[in-house]
């Protein structure tokens, strides 16, 4: 639990971070090198708190909040007895290293040390301490009081426990944490931002668009600032420094030389009174007047940002939702970067990237493999219904939801407040949905999943209390019949196990043709804990997948197993990152539905029956339709 924090450096970021902490009732020590800097910082904090108080945005008085902040000119004194230190001194590697050593030497061994750096490797700062497991990045955005986002950056050695604690801490001070799982230069927001700004600059330098054309196009798609407005706002020198420093740490980006030329001329943007636009006086911001112009193609401008986001997703640096959130909260976009990609079309994004490679004669813009794979699968975005997100039409029933996007439908067990426990009503609705989907010619594959944190926690046992043994037998027969209708459905059904999958929930998943599970999923047959055995077919289907003794082990102990264990024993076929589970389930459906439907149906029937005469019979029946395909295949081989 973090009760007391020290912020080192009382500049632009440090004083803002201290203010955020005090607003949230945290005792804060603020350190800087000189008294007058600290005095100035406290004045700024006081001014800002009074404004917030007048607007009714804070409950306690500015004086009460200010009383939580103590100022120091010595790091040694300031860090002595605190739970967390947040370093916010200037972005100078040697200086930060020295400050880290001083913090390490003078603080308790359990004190967590965070840095607000934008570009220095966290792991290198961590190595200056004797506690690299307790060092991480907490990247606040400017101004900290206003900006909601904090990137929580994991260093090479940061422990899971510290990451967890710091995510909670960031939530506790009213901010939205986004976890950056690897210490990658530029983290998420800056990497995405500089792709856009640098590309805009290159296109202008090459005379393809004018500054106003670019900014007008970007404003038109809802970005809060055009690329050049934003560059001026950040400061051309700061922007060039960010691009150059991430490039020197391995990001494939060639800084646009116009930034350098402007820096050399002292045209630094708002702070110098002139950058790409002119301002009333140095440091006075006025939003540039831009005539609306329609010439620039927004997809050409934004595609490198999408490409970067795809790379971050593929590398597991952050999740799809987190990257969307980072662009909304960190860059003020009205929607996530992947939503933009889906709306513009993945095909358009890929073509734009190829065009940029042609224009620049480089490979910097080569489309990420994720984008190419999406194209292969026809996941072109909103127009096909599948992109980075799925765009389904819904049919809401009482306990389940059916999501349609031909050729795929999703049956979502939908009692999230009860972890999707299976009531009699739910069984009725699943049965009806299966009958409807079987006869729906547009639907060729089905995903079954759960809403919220669980696939399903099992049968709704509250219904058991009123049932006689005879009724329990009938209930079990009915449950098994529903699972059988999944198994016998003419369409392939994939279970996307998104969380707890227990008891009857697992029995439903066992009836599906293929099971894929999220990394965090837990599976089990815990009926023994209430003195029962599985009644929905697990005693038959579980041994078929995992062998008799393993099935007995699971059923007799009632213990849960992880998705990874389930995969090892053949109970699930694939384990997928949580945020990509639905995408992969749909990908699998699209892969299957791209094959001849009759062959898919026959595979299911033959495998389920285990009858080798039936296999031969189906093989023969299919051959009539297969002739043309065989001919085409042989032609291609010639
Ligand atoms: P700043 O120059 O405004 O403030 C830094 C403060 O640190 C100064 O007041 C300075 O006197 C003080 N300082 C220097 N040496 C010190 C020492 N040995 N002990 C204590 N204090 C010392 O810088 P800033 O813009 O607040 O940036 C701080 C950090 O935050 C940098 O790492 C920067 O990359 C990062 N950051 C900045 C922004 C931004 O928009 N300004 C946004 C995100 C992250």
Structural write-up:
- The chain has 638 residues and is α/β, with parallel strands linked by helices.
- It folds into 4 domains: 4-180, NAD(P)-binding Rossmann-like Domain (Rossmann fold, 3-Layer(aba) Sandwich); 189-376, N-(1-d-carboxylethyl)-l-norvaline Dehydrogenase, domain 2 (Orthogonal Bundle), CATH 1.10.1040.50; 393-592, 2-enoyl-CoA Hydratase, Chain A, domain 1; 599-637, no CATH class.
- It has 26 helices and 19 strands.
- Strands 3-2-1-4-5-6-7-8 form an 8-stranded mixed β-sheet, with helices on both faces. The protein has a 7-stranded mixed β-sheet with strand order 9-10-11-12-14-16-19, sandwiched between helices. A 4-stranded mixed β-sheet has the order 13-15-17-18.
- Helix 7 links the parallel strand 7 and strand 8 (176-180).
- Helix 11 (236-248) crosses helix 12, helix 18 runs parallel beside helix 19 and helix 19 packs parallel to helix 20 (504-511).
- The radius of gyration is 29 Å and the shape is globular.
- The chain starts with a strand and ends with a helix.
- The mean pLDDT is 96.
- The protein binds nicotinamide-adenine-dinucleotide (NAD).
- It holds the Pfam family 3HCDH.
- Residues 4-183 form the 3-hydroxyacyl-CoA dehydrogenase NAD binding domain.
- Monomer.
């Amino acid at each position: 639990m973090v009760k007391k924090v020290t912020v080192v450096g009382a500049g632009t970021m440090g004083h803002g971070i201290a203010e955020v902490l005090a607003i949230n009732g945290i005792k804060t020590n603020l350190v800087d090198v000189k008294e007058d800097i600290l005095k100035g910082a406290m004045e700024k904090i006081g001014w800002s708190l009074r404004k917030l108080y007048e607007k009714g945005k804070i409950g306690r008085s500015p004086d009460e909040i200010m009383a939580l902040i103590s100022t120091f000119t010595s790091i040694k004194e300031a860090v002595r007895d605190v739970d967390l230190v947040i370093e916010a001194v200037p972005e100078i590697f040697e200086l930060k290293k020295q400050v880290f050593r001083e913090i390490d030497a003078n603080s308790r061994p359990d004190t967590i040390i965070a840095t607000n750096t934008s570009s220095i490797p966290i792991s290198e700062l961590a190595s200056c301490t004797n506690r690299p497991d307790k060092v991480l990045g907490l990247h606040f955005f400017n101004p900290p009081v206003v900006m909601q986002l904090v990137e929580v950056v994991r260093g090479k050695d940061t422990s899971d426990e510290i990451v967890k604690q710091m995510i909670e801490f960031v939530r506790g001070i009213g901010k939205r944490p986004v976890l950056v799982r690897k210490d990658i230069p530029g983290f998420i927001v800056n990497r995405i931002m500089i792709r856009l700004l640098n590309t805009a600059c290159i296109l202008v330098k090459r005379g393809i668009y004018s500054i106003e054309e670019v900014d007008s196009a970007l404003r038109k798609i809802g970005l809060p600032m055009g690329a050049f407005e934003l560059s001026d706002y950040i400061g051309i020198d700061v922007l060039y420094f960010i691009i150059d420093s991430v490039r020197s740490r391995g990001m494939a980006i060639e800084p646009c030389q116009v930034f350098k030329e402007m820096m050399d001329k002292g045209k630094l943007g708002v702070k110098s009174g002139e950058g790409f636009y002119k301002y009333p006086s140095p440091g006075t911001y006025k939003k540039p007047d831009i005539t609306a112009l329609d010439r620039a193609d927004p997809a050409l401008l934004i595609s490198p940002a999408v490409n970067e986001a795809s790379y971050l997703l593929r590398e597991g640096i952050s999740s799809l939702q987190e990257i969307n959130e980072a662009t909304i909260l960190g860059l003020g976009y009205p929607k996530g970067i992947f939503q933009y990609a889906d709306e513009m079309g993945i095909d358009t994004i890929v073509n734009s990237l190829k065009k940029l490679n042609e224009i620049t004669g480089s490979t910097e813009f080569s489309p990420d493999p994720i984008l190419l794979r999406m194209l292969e699968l026809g996941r072109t975005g909103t127009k096909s219904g599948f992109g980075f997100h799925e765009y389904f039409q819904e049919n809401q029933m009482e306990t389940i939801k059916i999501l349609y996007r031909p050729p795929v439908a999703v049956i979502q067990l939908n009692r999230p407040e009860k972890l999707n426990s299976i009531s009699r009503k739910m069984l009725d609705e699943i049965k009806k949905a299966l009958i409807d989907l079987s006869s729906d010619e547009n639907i060729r594959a089905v995903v079954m999943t759960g809403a919220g944190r669980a696939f399903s926690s099992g049968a709704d046992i509250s219904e058991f209390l009123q049932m006689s043994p005879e009724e329990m037998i009938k209930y079990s027969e009915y449950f098994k019949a529903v699972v059988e209708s999944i198994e016998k459905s003419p369409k392939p059904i994939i279970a996307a196990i998104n969380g707890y999958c227990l008891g009857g929930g697992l029995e439903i998943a066992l009836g599906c043709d293929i099971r894929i599970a999220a990394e965090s999923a837990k599976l089990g047959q815990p009926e023994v804990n209430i003195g029962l055995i599985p009644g929905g077919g697990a005693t038959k289907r579980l041994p078929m997948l995992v062998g008799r003794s393993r099935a007995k082990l699971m059923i007799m102990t009632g213990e849960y197993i992880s998705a990874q264990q389930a995969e090892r024993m053949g109970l699930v076929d694939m384990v997928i990152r949580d945020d990509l589970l639905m995408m992969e389930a749909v990908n699998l459906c699209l892969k299957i539905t791209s094959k001849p439907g009759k062959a898919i149906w026959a595979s299911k029937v033959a495998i389920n029956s285990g009858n080798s005469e039936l296999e031969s019979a189906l093989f023969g029946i299919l051959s009539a339709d297969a002739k043309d395909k065989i001919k085409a295949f042989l032609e291609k081989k010639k």
